[in-house]
Amino acid sequence: MNTRIQSEREVIAGPVGGIEVLTELPDGTPRAIALIGHPHPLFGGTMNNKVVLTVARALRELGCVAVRSQFRGVGASQGTHDEGRGETDDQLAVIEHAIARHGDLPIIVAGFSFGAFVATRVADALAAQGRPVTGMVLVGLATGSIEGIRHYEPGPVRDDALVIHGQHDEVVPLASVLAWASPQHLAVSVIGDTGHFFHGKLHMLRVLVERWWRATTPAGA
Fold it and tell me: Where are the domains positioned within the chain?
């Protein structure tokens, strides 16, 4: 880990108790606040997941205040898993805290797997408040039926959202993401020869995030 990264770990007040938050600051003046959600907490997902960390570090290097938090019941975050509902409320509280700390910057929501699903809900909630996000990064998005146990139905997203999926995703089949994206005429960036956790392909995640940033300038730069 780069020890020169300016970071802060704290527990903030949330709707049902404390939320553990880790914030990493960019080297220069912040251009946006990026909130990155982690995989399913009941299956070992935490904010220290390598995919989440890769996306967070890429966005930090692009000038964002990169904010990660533990979902309910993980680490120092209180509460119990709420299938995305309570987690959305908690993420909104994290955003409010980040804005109070760092200013009313553009908001980017990102996430991996279950965290990507929550990110779509957070974007919907902010849009309903009249505060639409300026960018979305959805990696391994949980959509459709997963292992016959869980079912997710993310709504429509921005047409410039970055959606990344592994060709051989064994948790969320690529076909499920394409079925969700197709009616929206939404592009999906497929990383070949990799599964849900992008083993050996994390560098491609960084490349795709950087290309998306340059193409869409989500922070209004």
Answer: 6-215
Polymer length in residues for the chain: 221
Listed in sequence order, the residues at least 6 apart from 64 whose beta carbon sits closer than 8 Å to its beta carbon are 26, 30, 31, 32, 33, 34, 108, 219
* Distance (Å) of CA 117 to CA 13, 135, 153: 23, 15, 8
- Does the domain formed by 6-215 have CATH 3.40.50.620? no
Task: Please give the distance of CA 90 from its chain centroid, rounded to a whole number.
Answer: 14
* Distance (Å, whole) CA 127 – CA 113: 22
Question: Of the candidates 76, 6, 71, which has an alpha carbon nearest to the alpha carbon of residue 43?
Answer: 71
Write the CB contacts of 219 (distance below 8 Å, at least 6 apart in sequence).
31, 32, 62, 63, 64, 105, 106, 108, 134, 135
Are 31 and 71 in contact by the 8 Å Cβ rule? The answer is: no
Angstrom distance (rounded) from CA 166 to CA 194: 5
Could you report the per-residue pLDDT of 100-140, keeping only the tens digit for each? 999 999 999 999 999 999 999 999 999 999 999 999 999 99
As a whole number of angstroms, the distance between CA 219 and CA 159 comes to 16
Asked if 92 and 99 touch (Cβ cutoff 8 Å), the reply is no
- What is this structure's pTM? 0.96
